[in-house]
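A favour, since you know our structure tokens better than I do. Would you make up a two-line entry for one protein for me to read? Write everything out right here, beneath this request.
=====
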Amino acid sequence: MPSKTIVIVNSTGRQGASLTRVASAVGFKVRAQLRSKDGLVAQELEGLQNVTLVVGSLEDEALVSKLFVGAQLAFVNTTLWGDEVAIGRSLADAAKKAGVAHYIYSSMPDHSVYGQGWPSLPLWSPKFAVENYVRQIGLTATFVYAGIYNNNFSSLPFPLFCMELQDDGSFQWKAPFHPDIPLPWLDAEHDVGPAVLQLLKDGPRKWASQRIALAFEILTPRQVCAAFSKGVGRPVRYSQGPIEIKVKTPAGYKEQLDALAQLFGKHQAPYFGPELTAPDVALQLWEGYRGMEEYAKEAFPVEERANGLTWMDD
């Protein structure tokens, strides 16, 4: 298996970078697509053994047509750069033409299809449309649905997952989620790579056409704050409330946040929809996950310091 070539699309994202690190370490030949070599993650990936960078836009038809040639495996996480559905379809077509034996696509649900009056999330529904296209063309594929990243938390004033530092040194997380309804979580940097690697090792005979809920802990917002408090050694409080936007956000993200507040705040819909549950399958794939408390203790302060913050020195 490690002698095989895997194409990883969006390799500098948290999911793609996690898999690139793990796959290269165990000997896979990794063809890592990225938009540019700018940034620390791109520099890190360029220095890894067994990794060949493919730099360019996924709207470049020539790049996409050659991307999967000679590869047996692929992990694809499309993003909002360009027309995500058109890009997702072109990638799937190219992978099928190249004969990719196992295509793993990072999808998400479209809650509107369940007839419950739930809204679509505008940044999730394109992924679901791409998943349906992958199925339609008969590409041998598995679909991973990522839970909420532990890594989303920051004390910087980003919306939804701001762990706001208070004057007394404590933190407060304010979000529209009900305080006692469980949500799925994973440390994307630490755990996506090993879990997807196991999917690749098991192969399509076991996982073809299946949806995998990739989350290792199911925690309510109150439980998240309790675990976070143990990790950082400070009080952490949860407050249910509207999403506050204090910084400029990417195009389409405000609409995503508005729909998310409706879907999970007002309607209290299940995160992955009614058909998919966690964490049993994820734990079959990878037992060495990093939970919320460990993340808050080990990774959160490091990420905060990298962002120029110094609260951990107080």
Observations:
- The first helix runs from residue 14 to 25.
- The first strand starts at residue 5 and ends at 9.
- The radius of gyration is 19 Å.
- The CA atoms of residues 88 and 130 lie 6 Å apart.
